[in-house]
C-alpha cells in the first residue's frame, strides 16, 4: 500500500507546553483521513508539521515518501493547503488571487489564467471572478481558498477545519467538492470538530485529546465498537430508571436531567422504557460519531 503520510511518535512542544505528544498514524494514497479532537487538542499543530509549516520537536514524519525535515520544499510543491484562517489578499479580485498564487508554483500567463478559471468553475465561483475578495461571503471565501490549494494539482490536499463557521448550504457545497476530488483519487487530510463532517467524508480517522491519540478507525467501526447501534435518550426520567438499567446490565450515561443509553438493538428496551419511565421526552435514534466523541473525550468544556 502506498502511504502518503507516515507519522511515528510525532511530538510538538511550545516551551513547556506539549501540543502533540507521541502521535503515530498513517494515511494511505487515495484516502480521506480525519484528525478530530476538542479545541486545543493539537490538530492544527499536527497538520502544520505535515505541511512543513512548523518543524517537529520529535519523532519522524514522512509525507509523499519524503522526510519532512530534509525535503520540505519538495513536499510543499506537491501538496495543497487550506489553513484554518482564510489568508487571501482582500484587495485583489477572485481571479487575481489565484493568478498571483500560481506564480509561486511557476505557473504564469495563459496557463495560470486557464487553470484558475477551471478551478473557479469547479468551486462554483466563476460568476465572481472579478469580485474583490473582501466582498465575498464566508462560504465563497472558503471556496476560493480551496480552489487556490488545487492550483498545483496536488497529490495530497490538507484542510484545517474546512467548514467551520459556514452556513449549511456552503458546508454541503464544500463537502460535495471534496467528495468529487476524493473520487478522482486525491488523498485528503482534514481536521474537524464536526462529527457529521467526519462521518460523511473520512474513510478513517483518529481522535486526539490533549495532544495524544485516543482512538483510530473507520467511522462505522468506531460507532459499533464504542457505542453500539442505537441510542435511547430520556429527558427527566421517572425515578428508578438508573437502577432498572443497571439491573439490565445496559451501558448508560447519567447527565442528571437526561439519561443516554447505548444499546445494540434498542427496540425492545425502548418500548419498556416508554411504558415505565418516560415523563418527559423519550427518543431512540441511530448511534453517531458524536456519541463516540463525547464518550471518549468527555463533556467538559475546553475554552
Ligand atoms: N505557536 C504556538 N505557541 C504556543 N502555543 C501554541 C502555539 N500553537 C498552538 N499552541 C498551543 O498548543 C495546543 C494545541 O493547539 P492547536 O494545535 O491549535 O489545537 P487545535 O487545532 O486542536 O484546536 C494549545 O494548547 C495551544 O494553545
Ligand atoms: Mg486548530
Main sheet summary: 6 strands, mixed
- Low-confidence parts: none
Bound molecules: adenosine-5'-diphosphate, magnesium ion
Spatial strand order of the main sheet: 6-7-8-3-9-10
Helical run tally: 11
In sequence order, what are the helices and strands, one letter per element? EEEHEEHEHHHEHEHEEHEHEEHEH
User: Which percent band covers the strand fraction?
Assistant: 25-35%
Could you give the distance between the termini? 40 Å
Radius of gyration, CA atoms, in whole angstroms = 22 Å
Give me the secondary-structure category.
alpha/beta
Helix percent reads 25-40%
Tell me, rounded to a whole number, the average pLDDT: 95
Tell me, what's the shape?
globular
Q: Mind telling me which CATH architecture of the largest domain this is?
A: 3-Layer(aba) Sandwich
The CATH topology label of the largest domain is Rossmann fold
Query: By CATH's scheme, which homologous superfamily of the largest domain applies?
Result: P-loop containing nucleotide triphosphate hydrolases
Number of individual domains: 2
Describe the structure.
By secondary structure, the protein is α/β, with parallel strands linked by helices. It has two domains: 3-213, P-loop containing nucleotide triphosphate hydrolases (Rossmann fold), CATH 3.40.50; 228-286. It is 36% helix and 28% strand. It is built from eleven helices and 14 strands. The strands form three sheets. A six-stranded mixed beta sheet has the order 6-7-8-3-9-10, sandwiched between helices. Strands 2-1-4-5 form a four-stranded antiparallel beta sheet, covered by helices on one side. α6 links the parallel β7 and β8. α3 packs across α4 (109-122) and α8 (219-226) crosses α11 (289-297). It is globular. 37% of the residues are buried. The chain binds adenosine-5'-diphosphate and magnesium ion (MG). The site of magnesium ion (MG) has 4 residues, from α1.
Amino acid at each position: 500500500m502506498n502511504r502518503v503520510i507516515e507519522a511515528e511518535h510525532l511530538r510538538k512542544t511550545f516551551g513547556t507546553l506539549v501540543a502533540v505528544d507521541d502521535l503515530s498514524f498513517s494515511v494511505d494514497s487515495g484516502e480521506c483521513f480525519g484528525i478530530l479532537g476538542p479545541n486545543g487538542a493539537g490538530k492544527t499543530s499536527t497538520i502544520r508539521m505535515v505541511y512543513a509549516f512548523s518543524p517537529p520537536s520529535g519523532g519522524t514524519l514522512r509525507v509523499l515518501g519524503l522526510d519532512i525535515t530534509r525535503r520540505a520544499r519538495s513536499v510543499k510543491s506537491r501538496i495543497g493547503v487550506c489553513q484554518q484562517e482564510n489568508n487571501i489578499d482582500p484587495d485583489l479580485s477572485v481571479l487575481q488571487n489565484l493568478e498571483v498564487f500560481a506564480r509561486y508554483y511557476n505557473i504564469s500567463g495563459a496557463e495560470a489564467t486557464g487553470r484558475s478559471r477551471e478551478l473557479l468553475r469547479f468551486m462554483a465561483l466563476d460568476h465572481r471572478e472579478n469580485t474583490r475578495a473582501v466582498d465575498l461571503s464566508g462560504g465563497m471565501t472558503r471556496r476560493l481558498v480551496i480552489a487556490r490549494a488545487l492550483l498545483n494539482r496536488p497529490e495530497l490536499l490538507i484542510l484545517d477545519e474546512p467548514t467551520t463557521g459556514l452556513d449549511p448550504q456552503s458546508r454541503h457545497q464544500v463537502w460535495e467538492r471534496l467528495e468529487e476530488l476524493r473520487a478522482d483519487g486525491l488523498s485528503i487530510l482534514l481536521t474537524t470538530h464536526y462529527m457529521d463532517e467526519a462521518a460523511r467524508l473520512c474513510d478513517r480517522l483518529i481522535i486526539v485529546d490533549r495532544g495524544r491519540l485516543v482512538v483510530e478507525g473507520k467511522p462505522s467501526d468506531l460507532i459499533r465498537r464504542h457505542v453500539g447501534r442505537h441510542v435511547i435518550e430520556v429527558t427527566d426520567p421517572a425515578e428508578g430508571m438508573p437502577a432498572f438499567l443497571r439491573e439490565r446490565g445496559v451501558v448508560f450515561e447519567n447527565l442528571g436531567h437526561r439519561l443516554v443509553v447505548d444499546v445494540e438493538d434498542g427496540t425492545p428496551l425502548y418500548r419498556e422504557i416508554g411504558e415505565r419511565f418516560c415523563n418527559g421526552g423519550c427518543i431512540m435514534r441511530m448511534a453517531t460519531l458524536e456519541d463516540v466523541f463525547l464518550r471518549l473525550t468527555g463533556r467538559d468544556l475546553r475554552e
